[in-house]
Amino acid sequence: MSDSPKNAQRITDEADVVLIGAGIMSSTLGAMLRQLEPTWSQIIFERLDGPAQESSSPWNNAGTGHSALCELNYTPEVNGKVDITKAIGINEKFQVSRQFWSHQVDNGILSDPSEFINPVPHVSFGQGADQVEYIKNRFNALKDHPLFQGMSYADDAETFAEKLPLMAKGRDFSNPVAISWIKEGTDINYGAQTKQFLAAAQAGGTEIRYGHEVKDIKADGAKWIVTVKNVHTGDTKTVKANFVFVGAGGYALDLLRSAGVPQVKGFAGFPVSGLWLRCTNEELIEQHAAKVYGKASVGAPPMSVPHLDTRVIDGQKGLLFGPYGGWTPKFLKQGSYLDLFKSIRPDNIPSYLGVAAQEFDLTKYLVTEVLKNQDKRMESLREYMPEAENGDWETIVAGQRVQVIKPTGFPKFGSLEFGTTLINNSEGTIAGLLGASPGASIAPSAMLELLERCFGDRMIAWGDKLKEMVPSYGKKLANEPELFAEQWERTQQTLKLEA
Q: pLDDT tens digits, residue range 424-444?
């Protein structure tokens, strides 16, 4: 009689590192590990037939380098005072991204920065007396901070029309307006960046298997058995890995559950989709050159803050407005309508019920957004662009996000989180990323945190290489303005962002 377990699976491959998902997160971590441990083998599994087709696609996100230069949800007003703490933290993380990307360009891993990053001014916009006062207070709170150098402010019609001619046409300036701006903002195509990372990865020996969906992850001693299905043939294979990263977007939650990671117990996910209005009139597109962020509606999630966005995608300038909130039970844009229901477990039911009771405003907002037709969406656009005409805009579907519901226990039981949450087991052999905004723009910072958590015993040995990748690693640029100025100038040149 055989001693083999009845359900033992034949291992068809082994790898030091398995990365699940061919998006910006996996490609960033893979790039770091290839330089830190070039002898480690890597395999990437992607359920779709190409890279960056979900959240990393340029049409599925706003393409903003989330440096908090213009995003108002990072500078809340508390008791009449603007709190810039979160803005500083986000900006710090984006500076890490700039440094890491510059290093990758210098070393030939990222080939052409103009394909993925381009200069576009970032503008904060307020209308009405209350918002104008807030924009001015926000400007005063940020203008002298080292990370927000060069911020300007105006509340007169002439400057507004000069900076934002498309938004000035037909505007009744008897309703006061104010803007603050930094001309050194950026637009980023994370899809193009992902493709450059993965092209270098394949050239360096990383195997990428598209059309392969990870169905299960199970512990095998200190290693992991990853079960993968070929979505075209139905064939199932297993891979043994020393380390697994789950960068599968909305599907990360269930995959971490399947792996039995105790740290994910009680976590749940709330799916939020969205729509954009995309301009089809080339003349209008050429008249606008900025990312203009306004105030969110009451009850709206931060990812739904309205913005009129200049985009640079595949060398073409574009113009988007939105996003408009939507809802579907899918956890990925190309997911299943059963995703939400399949994610419900006894341990996360209290989290779901707690958020359902607390987030009435969000529910009301989403219902209102879902019921909007094209005419209603155009009304929202006209708050930014008074002379917008229906015939110049088309509706496109944005990416699907799954906001993290974090278990909190009594009395709330769950809280809806609007950032990214890194989950890893105590042994540091498996990790995954949950949540959305600010997502892609802080991928290098998030992956450095992953390295610290999962490979703490190697960090001293990796120290010199990490400082080479990110010269400010271990420091706060907010406290070292000279280092910030030095790295800002260096990354401006390397990423070809200088005028």
A: 999 999 999 988 766 788 999
**Cα 179–chain centre separation:** 25
Q: Answer whether 0.85 is exceeded by the pTM.
A: yes
The residues near 78 (Cβ < 8 Å, ≥ 6 apart) are none
Cα angle for residues 133, 79, 124 (degrees, 5° grid): 35
- Nearest CA to 271 among 345, 407, 362? 362
Closest by CA to 328, choosing from 377, 378, 286, 369, is 369
Biggest CA-to-CA distance, the chain: 89
> Cα–Cα distance between 231 and 153 in angstroms, integer?
53
- Separation between Cα atoms, residue 253 and residue 257, nearest integer Å: 6
For 368, other C-beta atoms within 10 Å of its C-beta total 15
pLDDT tens, 140-198? 999 999 999 999 999 999 999 999 999 999 999 999 999 999 999 999 999 999 999 99
Which residues have a Cβ under 8 Å from the Cβ of 381 and sit 6 or more positions away? 277, 308, 321, 388, 393
Q: How far is CA 81 from CA 85, 88, 148, 295, 305, in A?
A: 12, 16, 18, 16, 21
- Domains of the chain in start order, with CATH, are 13-494 (3.50.50.60)
245: left (phi over 0), alpha (psi -120 to 50) or beta: beta
- Do you find a cis peptide bond into 176, omega within 30 degrees of 0? no
Per-residue confidence at 313, pLDDT binned at 50, 70, 90?
A: very high
* pLDDT score at 334: 86
The pLDDT-based confidence of 308 (bands split at 50, 70, 90) is: very high
Question: What are 199-236's pLDDT values in tens digits?
Answer: 999 999 999 999 999 999 999 999 999 999 999 999 99
Parallel/antiparallel/unpaired status of strands 291-293 and 122-127 = parallel
The CA distance from 31 to 245, in Å, is 13
Task: Give the separation between CA 398 and CA 367, rounded to whole angstroms.
Answer: 17
Taking residues 458-480, what's their average pLDDT? 97
Phi then psi for 131, rounded to 5 degrees? -70, -35
404: left (phi over 0), alpha (psi -120 to 50) or beta: beta
**Contact (CB, 8 A) for 84 and 473:** no
Vertex 199 angle, CA 197 and 203, to 5°: 115
Q: Report which residue type is found at 289.
A: A
Question: With contact defined as beta carbons under 8 Å apart, do 351 and 405 qualify?
Answer: yes
